Amino acid sequence: MITPRFSITQDEEFIFLKIFISNIRFSAVGLEIIIQENMIIFHLSPYYLRLRFPHELIDDERSTAQYDSKDECINVKVAKLNKNEYFEDLDLPTKLLARQGDLAGADALTENTDAKKAQKPLIQEVETDGVSNNIKDDVKTIGQMGEGFNWEIEQKMDSSTNNGILKTKYGFDNLYDTVISVSTSNGNDINELDEPEHTDANDRVIERLRKENLKFDPEYYVSEYMTHKYGNEEDLEINGIKELLKFTPSIVKQYLQWYKDSTNPNLVMPIEFTDEEQKQMQDNLPKKSYLVEDIKPLYVTILSVLFSYVFEQIENEGTHTTESAWTMGKLCPQISFLDQQLKQVNELQDGMKEISKVNKDSSLIKIAIITGIRRALSYPLHRNYDLAMKAWTFVYYILRGGKRLVIRALLDIHETFRFHDVYYVYDKVLLDDLTAWFISQGSENVIRSLALEMRREQESLSKQDIEFECIASFNEQTGEPEWETLNIREMEILAESEYREQQQNPQ
């Protein structure tokens, strides 16, 4: 059976469903429409459509179905059981198409502009002047509304095995294998794993950290830093960092403008998806059930994906280029290293696992933020700490905008990868399912909790927290490199000291 393309509108009394049935000869005899409580089932061979609505319908004499030969569609009108009842999320096809049980754990707080749904403000105030925001949220309320989410890392046994022969799973909820290795033979240079099909979750973290240290160039970073701080106007114009720090992506501008104009900015930002976005959700996303045991890594993945997206938007000043997918993929560890774990788990003598003493008390959110910054200082053209922090601030704004604004960003990211000849593989293993799952099952409350926790961790972060293992020297006897741990503030201090010395003692 083929799922037809459709669109839905409503008024205070009816649901209006338009079902497109192109390229077939219409026969009223074969048409079947069933209305059961909150569900509409449509069948006209070879088309089959089953839609579940948030509220109940009623099949009475007011319901009609008419064929429109000009548009090659069937216009269905169905009455609402309760007049004046608002049916939310009618522009989310993936959610309407979800099977029974798929929506367990979905939004308990699907919001509109109705004031009765805004009981107690979850987030009190946001400043729109740029980077600095004072968080005045009620932490207790956020915790309750965020489904009691605890973003700290869990201590658990490492069940992964790796004998170099067995394939490992990766991607969305660890559902995939064999896919990435095929893409590498076609030029997939986003992937950085030596053996993506045979590297378990813990080893992915180890390999990622090692390669981030190797990729980070202290001289490159220091040069960017000194140019930004001491460069003349010509240097700054050539470098471009000054203008980038002033740039705000359009999706963030949408939120800030709404917040400025809103009479009650504590509500979720109302967004109506465009026809193109609705078509994308309907045609290009999977329609299947997701039974996810641990949803926390999925939200952290969304956080990392949004950071890579925002940073790429800033870097290219809002215009997608042929390198956009590469940039986003490199900045996102869940893509470039298939690393959903983010933190290494160390094995003790008794066989138990615990978090290493480094950042032992860190939350997953803090680790995601630090990882994003480390990669932003290692891969893109502009490697600037302030730029990375600005990107994280914009991620916070998108999260504050609510579920629909996050969906809009995910759809844009998904399309960027979908149209790439090689990198589309990351839609297949991650972004397809992640976007579809979030549309149908993502929680508005968890997104708000995530926004608050991310902002708190960001504001507590300093340059001393961003460390790299750098080559200090080489052993004279063995020729092996000797490493030392330096944070980026230490690098800046050393560079500034050398600069002042040169100014005082010019050659």
Beta-strand content estimate: 5-15%
The total beta strand count reads 12
Termini gap = 79 Å
Instruction: Report the average pLDDT across residues.
Output: 83
Number of domains: 2
Helical segment count: 18
Radius of gyration, in Å, reads 26 Å
Helical content (DSSP H or I, runs of 4+): 40-55%
Low-pLDDT segments: 101-145, 155-165, 347-361
| Helix-strand pattern | EEEEEEEEHHHHHHHHHHHHEEHHHHHEEH
**Structural class assignment:** alpha+beta
What oligomeric state do the depicted chains represent? single chain
Organism: Saccharomyces cerevisiae (strain YJM789) (Baker's yeast)
Protein name: Small nucleolar RNAs of the box h/aca family quantitative accumulation
Domain CS: 1-91
Family: Belongs to the SHQ1 family.
Structural account:
The protein is α+β, with helices and mostly antiparallel strands and 507 residues long. It has two domains: 92 residues, Sandwich (Immunoglobulin-like), CATH 2.60.40; 288 residues, no CATH class. Strands 1, 2, 6, 7 and 8 form a five-stranded antiparallel sheet that branches. The protein has a three-stranded antiparallel sheet with strand order 3-4-5. A two-stranded antiparallel ribbon has the order 9-10. A hairpin with a 2-residue loop joins strand 3 and strand 4. The chain is elongated, with a radius of gyration of 26 Å. About 14% of the residues have low confidence. It comes from Saccharomyces cerevisiae (strain YJM789). Belongs to the SHQ1 family. Pfam families: SHQ1 (PF04925), SHQ1-like_CS (PF21413). This is Small nucleolar RNAs of the box h/aca family quantitative accumulation.
